[in-house]
Amino acid sequence: NIYQFPKDFWWGSASSATQMEGFSGADGKGKNIWDHWYETEPNRFHQGIGPDKTSLFYTNFIDDIPLMKETGHNSFRFSISWSRLFPKGRGEMNPKAIDFYNSVIDTLLENGIEPFVNLYHFDMPMAMQEEGGWESRSVVDAYVEYASACFENFGDRVMKWFTHNEPIVPVECGYLYGHHYPAFCDFGKAVQVGFHSVLASAKAINAYHEKELGGKIGIILNVTPSYPRSNHPADVDAAEKSDLLFNRSFLDPSVKGTFPEKLIEMLRVENFLPEYLTEDLDIIRDNTVDLLGINYYQPRRVKAKENIPNPNAPFLPERYFDHYDMPGKKVNLYRGWEIYEKGVYDILKNIQENYGNIECFISESGMGVEAEERFKDESGMIQDDYRITFYEDHLKWIHQALNEGVNVKGFHVWTFMDNWSWLNSYKNRYGLVEVDLTKNFRRTIKKSGIWYKRLSENNGF
Length: 461
Ligand code: BGP
Hints:
Strand order of the largest sheet: 1-2-3-4-5-7-10-12
Distance between the termini: 5 Å
CATH architecture: Alpha-Beta Barrel
InterPro entries: GH, Glyco_hydro_1
Pfam family, one: Glyco_hydro_1
Bound molecules: 6-O-phosphono-beta-D-galactopyranose
Shape: globular
Protein name: 6-phospho-beta-glucosidase
Oligomer: single chain
GO molecular function: beta-glucosidase activity
Keywords: Glycosidase, Hydrolase
């Protein structure tokens, strides 16, 4: 191997309940915001395919998990559906959900795959949303109850826990830009939602540590580096503001236990500080993560604002900066996102230099491709060489970071098998394994799945 990874490196993939389980109305599951939105506004969803029809892991996991093994997994991240476990968000638990997650965990372990379990992946139970969702303190308490129930029921076998996946995404998509339910555009609400997500995470970490179950608990963040267009101070300042809002808003409290002073000042000046109790800040300070998951897809390119913002327009982060397209950027041919492999190295070095070199791993990296069946060979296997190259190019930079002493423990791709995506449904395919919707959701390993197995067996390439 030219690129050799440490022994016990975590090779695997990530997924989420809403995107993979299906059966969103079955076996006692309560509704979450996605079920509700699809029911009330199906036209928002690509080709009208909703979260009821995802990749049917709920009934197929017995066959899917051996396929994970066949594609080189030694670890796999999934999320528990809060509304499957607690149909009303709190109170009575659904015994069928406990059975289901127990079977998934046991089957993973029998196949030599370590379960990494995430507690919240964009899927607020509808009953909790009706109480105000993350805007509301009572929902923070309900979440901690739910988290504790998960630790009690599954914590004897699950040793890696995560409080949230990409908590900035519900803030942005649900409360600023209208892509997720409840589709508000309200900066004040967005800040409150962000603060409560941080608080909920710290409280869940506290609950986990108190139980002394012997595992680790962390958070998964999409740390998207903000690169300024030039060294001009106005561009650098714009990039710093974007970094404070989108990255450090969660990274600092999760790892260091405090919010950046500059971020607090930005919010204070605009009158956007959230409501909180003094004790909340103590809880956040005293309950930082043991482990950090980093999702990386694309960088953020930022420049100073060119026009004075319209004071009457809704307040958005874009008050502070403009986006620009990197001239000559390498694009993800099939999705339009910029590909910048070195970004992953820059993030890891930042964690090493500014966040105490905390134990971390790349928890999502992936390439979404439209109409991928056009790359099938005669045997019917998708020849996704573009995806293999994409992963290798990122792994080279991760390897470089490792050589320089970064405490990076693993690499998880997005995702194991093609799955349903928020609003885009099955438009962009990400899997190592194809799911054919037209053939009863038949699974077929792609070329990248075979490559991944070799990578994991050789522990390098
Ligand atoms: C991440 C999310 C995933 C997944 C992925 C791909 O931000 O954690 O849930 O969906 O992005 O993005 P998309 O599905 O929008 O193409």
